[in-house]
Design a protein that fits this description.
This protein folds into two domains: 176 residues, Alpha Horseshoe (Serine Threonine Protein Phosphatase 5, Tetratricopeptide repeat), CATH 1.25.40; 395 residues, Porin (Beta Barrel), CATH 2.40.160. The chain is built from ten helices and 21 strands. Strand 18 and strand 19 form a beta hairpin. The chain is elongated. The N terminus is likely disordered.
Length: 607
C-alpha cells in the first residue's frame, strides 16, 4: 500500500489487495475456483478470507466504527447460501466480537466450526482466541490446545482425502507455532505427544516437561529486585541503634555497606500437564550469595558471610474461564526451605521451614480494553531461634500484595513517522497499560517487626512499531515496630530511629531487533535452532531519600539483550538467554559500581 496516498485511496487499494490474496493460489497448487464445489458445504474457501475481511473491517477505524462494521456483517448473513460461505461470515463476526471484547465471541467461533466442520482454519482462529485474547496473565491453555490439535486432526483428514491446498500449509505452520508458544514456558518435552512437530494425537495425551533456569549476577539488588537503597540504609540504621553498636557508623563503614555480592541460582521444575487437570509442578531450587549477609551488626562491615538457600516443593497452575464474570488464574505452591547464613551471629545455623504462596489473577474485557487484578500472599513459617529468651526467638515472614492494571487496546491516532509522513493514521497498539500496586512485607525478629511497604504506579506503551516504553514511580517505606516485654501491659510502638522512605523513578525502553509478531508461522531454523525474539532493553533508574539518611541515593543505567529461540530438533523447546550490564553511581558516597547479570532459561515462570 502506498503510504503517501490519500486515506480513502489507501483503504480501497488495501481491500482490493486483501481480496486478491484471498482468492489467489500459488502456482502448481491444487485449488478450486470460488464457483467449484467440494462436497455438501459449497465452495472450498481459503479460511484466511476470514482473516482478510476482519482486517479490512478493523483497519484505520475506531471501536465505534468497528461496531458499525459488525452490524453490517449481521446484515450480510443470508438464509440461502452455501454452508462454507456462512461459516466464513460467522468467523468474521467472531473475530470482530473478539476485537470488541464481546463475551459471546466463542459462540460464533463454535457456530463457524459447526457450519463447516471440515475446515481446520476455524479451529486455528478459535485456538488463537483462547491463547492470545483470553486468560489472566496466562492463556487458557486447555481450551487453546483443544482447538489447535483439532486443527491438526482436520488437516490430516484433508491430506488423506486429497483436499489439502497450499493455503492449508499456512494454517498448519500457524497452528504449530501457536502450540510452540503455548508450551514455551513449560520447558523440554519429555513425552512425544505435545512436542514439535505436533500431531492431532496430542489433544488428550498427557504432557511432561523439564524446566531449568540458571541465573548469575553481581548486583546490588537480589533476584527479587528489592530496593538496594532501602536495604543498605536499613542495615546502617540498625547497626547504629541502641540494640547494636549504639554509635554512628564511620564514612568508610557507610561506603563499604554498598556492595554487590556474586549471586547464582538454579531453578528446576518437572511439569505434568493434562487437559483435564492443568499443570502440576515438582520444584527444586538452589541459591547462593557470596559474602552477602552481615554476621554481626555490632561490626557490620568486618565480616560478611555466604547465604545458601535450597527448597523442594510442589505447585499448581490453571486458567479457568468464568465468563461472563472473568477469567481466573489459579497459581500457588508449597516449599520446604533449608537455608544457612541468613541469621545474625549464627552463620552455620541451618534453618528448615515451610513456605506457602498463592498468586491468583482475575481478568476480563471492558469493551476492547482489559482489566486485570493480581494478588499475592506468601507465608514463611521460619523456624524460631534455638535457646535464649523465648520472645526473642520468634521468626516469621508474611508478604501481601496486589496490582490493578487497565490495558487499552483501542486504536490510537498517531503520526505516520515510519513512512516519512506527518499525516495521522490510526493503528492498533500492542497495548497501553496503566497500573497501580502495593506490597507489604512483614518480617518478625523476636519482639521487633520490620514492616516494608512498596507503593507503585506506572504505564507501559507497546507501540505498533518495534519499540515499547515503560515509566514507573515507586515509593519505598520501612518501619520497625517493637514491644517492650517488661511492661505490665505490652503495646506496640514504633522505633522512629529506624524510619526510612525513598522514591524511585524508572524508565525502560525496549526495541525489538527481532519481532516474533512478524513471524506468525514457524520460522526458518539453522541446525535446528529457530530465532524468535531479540530485544534490546535500556533501563534507567534514579532513587532518592524522602525520609531518613540519603547516603545511598543513586542513579543507574545500562543495557540488556533478551534472546528467545526454539530448538526444533528436541521437541520445539524454547530457550531464553539474557545478558545485561549496569553502571550504578552512589553520588553522595562518590562510589561507582559496575554490575552484570546473565540468565539461561529452558522454560520459565513469571518473569
Amino acid at each position: 500500500m502506498i503510504a503517501w496516498a490519500p486515506r480513502r485511496v489507501r483503504q480501497v487499494l488495501g481491500r482490493l489487495a486483501l481480496l486478491a490474496l484471498t482468492w489467489s493460489a500459488p502456482a502448481g497448487a491444487k485449488s478450486l475456483t470460488p464457483g467449484e464445489v467440494e462436497g455438501e458445504n459449497g465452495p472450498r474457501l481459503n479460511p484466511f478470507e476470514c482473516h482478510g475481511r476482519y482486517e479490512a473491517a478493523t483497519g484505520n477505524r475506531t471501536m465505534a466504527q468497528v461496531r458499525v462494521e459488525l452490524e453490517k456483517k449481521f446484515d450480510q448473513l443470508a438464509e440461502k447460501e452455501p454452508a462454507s460461505v456462512s461459516a466464513m461470515k460467522y468467523c468474521v463476526i467472531a473475530r470482530l466480537k473478539q476485537r470488541l471484547g464481546g463475551s459471546d465471541a466463542g459462540e460464533w467461533f463454535e457456530k463457524a466450526i459447526a457450519t463447516d466442520p471440515a475446515e481446520p482454519g476455524y479451529e486455528l482462529f478459535f485456538g488463537m482466541y483462547w491463547s492470545m485474547a483470553r486468560g489472566a496473565r496466562a492463556p487458557v491453555v486447555e481450551l487453546a490446545e483443544t482447538h489447535l490439535y483439532l486443527a491438526l486432526d482436520k488437516l490430516e483428514e484433508l491430506r488423506k482425502a486429497g483436499l489439502y491446498r497450499d493455503y492449508h500449509q499456512t494454517v498448519e505452520d500457524w497452528t504449530k507455532k501457536r502450540l510452540l508458544v503455548l508450551y514455551q514456558q513449560d520447558g523440554q518435552p519429555l513425552l512425544p505427544w505435545k512436542a514439535y512437530e505436533q500431531t492431532g494425537a496430542g489433544r488428550l495425551a498427557p504432557g511432561a516437561f523439564a524446566s531449568a533456569q540458571l541465573r548469575l549476577s553481581r548486583d546490588t539488588r537480589d533476584f527479587f529486585y528489592n530496593s538496594e537503597m532501602r536495604t543498605f540504609t536499613g542495615e546502617k540504621l540498625f547497626a547504629q541503634s541502641d540494640v547494636r553498636a549504639d554509635r554512628a557508623l564511620t564514612d568508610r563503614e557507610t561506603w563499604d555497606l554498598a556492595r554487590a555480592p556474586l549471586r547464582g541460582q538454579l531453578d528446576t521444575r518437572l511439569r505434568l500437564r493434562h487437559n483435564f487437570i492443568g499443570a502440576v509442578d515438582l520444584l527444586y531450587s538452589a541459591h547462593q550469595s557470596k559474602s552477602a549477609q552481615i554476621e554481626s551488626f555490632y561490626m557490620p562491615t568486618s565480616n560478611l558471610v555466604d547465604v545458601n538457600v535450597a527448597h523442594l516443593g510442589a505447585g499448581y497452575e490453571r486458567v479457568i474461564p468464568l465468563y461472563p464474570l472473568f477469567d481466573l488464574r489459579l497459581a500457588g505452591n508449597y516449599k520446604r526451605i533449608e537455608r544457612s547464613g541468613a541469621t545474625e551471629f549464627l552463620p552455620e545455623l541451618r534453618e528448615q521451614f515451610d513456605s506457602f504462596e498463592l498468586k491468583p489473577s482475575f481478568s476480563r474485557f471492558v469493551g476492547s480494553d482489559k482489566i486485570t487484578l493480581d494478588l499475592t500472599y506468601v507465608n514463611m513459617n521460619i523456624t524460631d531461634l534455638p535457646g535464649g529468651v523465648p520472645e526473642q526467638a520468634l521468626r516469621e515472614k508474611i508478604i501481601r500484595g496486589g496490582k490493578l492494571e487497565y490495558a487499552l487496546y483501542s486504536p490510537l491516532t498517531m503520526p505516520a513517522f515510519p513512512f516519512g509522513s506527518g499525516e495521522p493514521y490510526r493503528a492498533a497498539t500492542r497495548g497501553w497499560a496503566f497500573y497501580v500496586g502495593a506490597l507489604q512485607d512483614d518480617e518478625t525478629y523476636g519482639v521487633r517487626r520490620v514492616v516494608r511497604r512498596d507503593l507503585y504506579g506506572g504505564t507501559r506503551f507497546d507501540s505498533p512499531a518495534r519499540w515499547a516504553l515503560q515509566l514507573q514511580g515507586t515509593y519505598y517505606q520501612s518501619r520497625t515496630i517493637f514491644v517492650d516485654p517488661n511492661q505490665a501491659a505490652p503495646q506496640e510502638r514504633t522505633d522512629t530511629t529506624q524510619n526510612f522512605a525513598s522514591a524511585r523513578a524508572t524508565a525502560i525502553y525496549q526495541y525489538r531487533l527481532l519481532d516474533p509478531d512478524r513471524t506468525p508461522g514457524v520460522g526458518d531454523s539453522a541446525l535446528g535452532f529457530a530465532p524468535d525474539m531479540l530485544n534490546l532493553v535500556i533501563p534507567v533508574h534514579w532513587e532518592a531519600a524522602v525520609e531518613g539518611p540519603n547516603d545511598y541515593e543513586n542513579v543507574r543505567g545500562g543495557a540488556e539483550l533478551w534472546f528467545k529461540f526454539f530448538q526444533q530438533g528436541i521437541g520445539g523447546t524454547a530457550f531464553l538467554l539474557t545478558v545485561g550490564y549496569d553502571a550504578q553511581y552512589f553520588y553522595n558516597l562518590g562510589k561507582t559500581m559496575h554490575l552484570f547479570n546473565a540468565g539461561l532459561r529452558m522454560g520459565w515462570g513469571d518473569l
